[in-house]
Amino acid sequence: MALISEVAEKIYEIKPEGNGPEVFPLCTVYLVVDDQMALVEVGSSVQIPVILDAVSRLGYDIKELSYIIPTHVHSDHAGGAGHLAQQLPRARVVAHPRAARLLADQSIIDRMLQSRRAVFGDDADERFGGMLAIAEERFVLVEDGADLDLGERQLKAIHTPGHDPNHLCFMDSKTRGLFCGDALGGYFSETKSRMPACVPGSDPEVIIHSIDKAKQFNPAMLFFSHGGTTADAIRIIQLALSDERQCADTALKALKAGEDQEKIARRLAGILAKESDLTPEEIRVFPNFTTMTVEGYRQYFKKKNLL
Ligand SMILES: [Zn+2]
Predict the structure, then answer these.
(1) Low-confidence spans in the chain with pLDDT less than 70
(2) From the CA of 200, how far away is ligand 1's center (Å)?
(3) What is the pLDDT at residue 21?
(4) CA Rg value for the chain
């Protein structure tokens, strides 16, 4: 089941139930209705029936969908894009050119699924669904600054690497809301809890640069893909900037001191708990911490020869 609400004019949030990081790796998706209808994020392919149900409950016909817009290639965002594109032959998939190349290649997708199994266990494919390659001709390729015209509104693509090199955020011209994917991490307003943006393959310095770039657009709202919508946009962006800096500094010091993954995860949970209603223990339950965020920092600092 999903929680469905209109969070801005003709923007519908379709959010997995749960009010904290425990819902990861499911993804919040957004239906944007205009002359052309778009779906920002698809999530894992197990989410597709939920999305189809939500769209029909909102009174729209999914067959009218023009654009499927995963913000980046990670399987919890783009995992269902191939399956949905197969069901909707009229729809186009909007992506950065480099992301499109990855999403069109089944051997790369199989490697992504393999690393998902390494993180979430051997039954990850059953729990979250498979992932299909998308034929090249189905893509609309967009780069930084491109406007996707939906009719009365445009979605401006903003290249925001760091979390993932080919990540795009999209700014809605009508509401000045920013679909931020994972560029700023996640944010659950119910518990005021943030998820950090750093995972294996991320560049923590570029993450900060991209959050700063998003801030320059002065968004009025943020549509998070892990978590939901907040109108407290600038404060949350500032919080993301300070958290990401503190987490990176703390992780580097702790890794240099030879601390184990658990201890470092606890330190990061302490930083993220400060502004949240959750305790560090509640935040740490979230698997991203122990297995992904600390590992992301370790790999990055190692690559930089800082460890
Ligand atoms: Zn991601």
Answers:
(1) 18-24, 285-290
(2) 10
(3) 53
(4) 18
Ligand 1 centroid to Cα of residue 9, in Å, is 26
User: Which of 140, 47, 142, 134 is CA-nearest to residue 85?
Assistant: 134
Q: What is the pTM of this model?
A: 0.95
Distance 163 CA to ligand 1 centre (A): 7
Could you tell me the distance, in angstroms and rounded to a whole number, from the CA of residue 164 to the centre of ligand 1?
7
- The burial of 97, by beta-carbon neighbours within 10 Å (0-12 exposed, 13-18 middle, 19 or more buried), is given as exposed
- pLDDT of 19 reads 53
197: its two tokens: 């943006």
Percent of the chain with pLDDT over 90: 81
From ligand 1's centre to the CA of 184, what distance in Å? 10
